[in-house]
Write a structure and sequence with these properties.
By secondary structure, the chain is mostly helical. The chain has five helices and no strands. The radius of gyration is 15 Å and the shape is elongated. The protein starts with 12 loop residues before the first helix and ends with a helix.
C-alpha cells in the first residue's frame, strides 16, 4: 500500500480477512505503527503455511483452517486430502502460537 497498491487477491483472506481489513484501515488513518503490527500477523500466518508441508499442502490446509474457525467447507477434492489428525493438531498448535485464534477469522 505504501507503494500505491489498492487491492489484492488471496485465498488467505477467507480466514484472515478481518486482520487484512484492520491493516488497511490503520494504513488509511496514517497509523503506520499499527499497520505494521497487522502486516506482521498476516506475514506470520503466510510463513506458517509455507512450512514445507508440515500439515499437508495447498487447499487441504486452507480448508482445515476454515474448519478450525468454525466454517464447514467440506473436504478437499482429490488428489488433496485432509491433514492427518497429527497434522491438524500441529496446525492448531502453530496457529495458537502466533495468536491466530485471537485476531484471525473472516
Amino acid at each position: 500500500m505504501a507503494m500505491g497498491c489498492t487491492g489484492a487477491v488471496g485465498s488467505t483472506y477467507n480466514y484472515m480477512g478481518a486482520e487484512a481489513n484492520r491493516l488497511v484501515q490503520a494504513f488509511q488513518k496514517g497509523d503506520l505503527e499499527q499497520a505494521r503490527v497487522h502486516q506482521a500477523r498476516c506475514g506470520d500466518l503466510v510463513k506458517l503455511l509455507h512450512h514445507g508441508g508440515r500439515y499437508g499442502a495447498g487447499v487441504n490446509v486452507q480448508k482445515a483452517i476454515m474448519e478450525l474457525i468454525g466454517v464447514q467447507v467440506g473436504p478437499p477434492r482429490a488428489p488433496h486430502r485432509r491433514p492427518s489428525p497429527e497434522g491438524l493438531e500441529l496446525l492448531r498448535r502453530d496457529l495458537t502460537d502466533i495468536g491466530f485464534f485471537e485476531w484471525g477469522g473472516c
